Amino acid sequence: MSESNTKEPEYTPFDGLLKHLTDQFAPELLAYLGDIEHIKECSSIGGEIELMHRLSDRVWKITEDKAQNDLTYLLHLEFESSPSDNIGERVGMYGWGVFQKEQLPVRHIVWYVGELKPKGWPEDTWFRFVHKEMKIETEVESWVRWKEIWLPGKYSAVQFLEEAPPYLLPFSALMKGADRSLIKQLHEVISEASLPETQRQDLLAIAAFFLCRHFKLSDIKEVFDMEALEHNPLGEYLLQKGIEQGLEQGIEQGIEQGLEQGERKAQIKIAKRLLLAGTPPQEICELTELPLEEIQRLEEELQQP
User: How many Cβ atoms are within 10 Å of 26's Cβ, its own excluded?
Assistant: First the structure.
C-alpha cells in the first residue's frame, strides 16, 4: 500500500491472499489477533465495505461471550504491506462509516504483514495500541484507537514456526533469521498440521509465495510439489505473482515477458477454476485482478448448457 497521503493504495498480492486467509479462518484468526477469549458468533458483514470511494479490508460482527452478558461489536481488520503515514485518518474514516451503516461500536486492528518495521516500534513486542486525535481545522472532534500488529517485532522465523497456530505458519517466512533450512521445516510443519486438505493446500501455496520473496524458485521446488500447487487455484495465482516479482535473477526478464504474453489467459483460466469451486465473484476479482463484470460474464458462460 502507498505511504502517500494523496495516492490511492496500490494493489498487492498480499491483499488477495490475506482476505482469502481471513475468510477461511476468521474466528480463530480474530481471536488470536484481537486477544479475544470466547467468540460466540462471528459473521462477515459483506467483506469489503465501500466508504467514500475507498474499501476497508474486512469487517466482522462479533458476539463475545462475557460471563453473564454477551458483547456485540464490529471488528475491522486492515492489512498493510508497509508502514503508512495516514493510517489513523483511514481507520477513523472507516470506523465512522461502518458505525453509521451498522449502528454498532467498532474495534480496529491494523496488521502489518510486510518486513518493514513500523515507525517507533518497541523492541521485543508484536503489538501496540495507538490513538489519534481527529480534527476539523484546529478543533479536536473525536479520537480513534486501534491495535497495531507486526509479528516480526517479537518472533524469529524458528520461534514463530514452533509457536504459531497453523493458519499463520506461512508468515514465518517473513520473520528474522529465515534461511534455506526454513523451506523444508515450513513445508513439514504445514503438511503435518491437523487441517482439512483444502486448507492445507492453501497454506502451502501461501508459504511458497512468501518463500519466493527471499529464495530462488529452484530451492523451493526441491521441497514443494509445484505441480500440486499449480492445480490449486490460489496456488496457481500466487506462484504467478511470485515469479513476476523476480525469483530467478538470471532469467527474470524472460519470465516477465512470457507472463505478460499469457497473463490474461492465465487470469481467465484461474477465474473459471475458482467459479467452478464455488468462490464468490468478488473474491475472484481480488485474486485475479479481472473486472467484476468479466467474472460475472464468465460465470454466465459456465452456467450455460
Answer: 20
